[in-house]
């Protein structure tokens, strides 16, 4: 059975810099995701570290958090049936060299780090990530 879910998308600094935001948002809407919250932010290093705390012991943590705080990002709260898995599929593999044709990362990602977009990977991480960037009153009903 399909269930209505929320997930967090981030248009990362590389994609904002390239002017890809409009195309990515259009792709989300075309694929029947409802945008229930959206804002542009420029987070600092500590805020990026808090968001990616789950990756603290990974070798790429330092570089990733520098990258994510290097320029403006757009955070988007999405709602749809099966939003989490459907958005992961639309986003494509972490490494764009492995991303399928038609995915956002295939089109816009430069490499495994500067890979254009983020997407929550499970219900608990989606809840944490949405609440990291949005207060309840900021999300549309
Ligand atoms: P995803 O974003 O597909 O869920 P992960 O959660 O594994 O991927 O990693 C979080 C982010 O860290 C990736 O989107 C990417 O920006 C970066 N990253 C992941 N693996 C690597 C790596 N091997 N080298 C550099 N950066 C990486
Ligand atoms: Mg992840």
- How many distinct folded domains? 1
Largest sheet features:
4 strands, antiparallel
String of helices and strands? EHHEHHEHHEH
Structural class: alpha+beta
Chemical compounds bound to the protein: adenosine-5'-diphosphate, magnesium ion
Strand order of the largest sheet: 2-3-1-4
End-to-end CA span: 23 Å
CATH class: Alpha Beta
User: How many helices?
Assistant: 7
Note the topology.
Elements: E1 4-11, H1 13-18, H2 21-30, E2 34-41, H3 45-51, H4 61-68, E3 73-81, H5 83-91, H6 104-108, E4 117-119, H7 123-133
Antiparallel strand pairs: 1-3, 1-4, 2-3
Helix pairs in contact: 3-4
Bound molecules: adenosine-5'-diphosphate and magnesium ion (MG).
The site of adenosine-5'-diphosphate (ADP) has 9 residues, from loops.
């Amino acid at each position: 059975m399909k269930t209505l879910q929320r997930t967090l998308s981030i248009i990362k600094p590389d994609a904002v810099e390239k002017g890809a935001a409009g195309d990515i948002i259009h792709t989300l809407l075309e694929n029947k995701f409802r945008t229930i919250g959206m804002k542009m932010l420029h987070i600092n290093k500590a805020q990026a570290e808090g968001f990616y705390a789950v990756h603290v012991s990974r070798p790429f943590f330092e570089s990733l958090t520098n990258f994510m705080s290097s320029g403006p990002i757009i955070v988007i709260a999405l709602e749809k049936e099966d939003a989490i898995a459907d958005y992961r599929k639309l986003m494509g593999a972490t490494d764009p060299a492995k991303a399928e044709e038609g995915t956002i990362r295939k089109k816009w990602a430069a490499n495994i780090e500067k890979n254009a977009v983020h997407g929550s990977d499970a219900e608990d991480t989606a809840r944490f990530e949405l609440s990291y960037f949005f207060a309840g009153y900021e999300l549309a009903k």
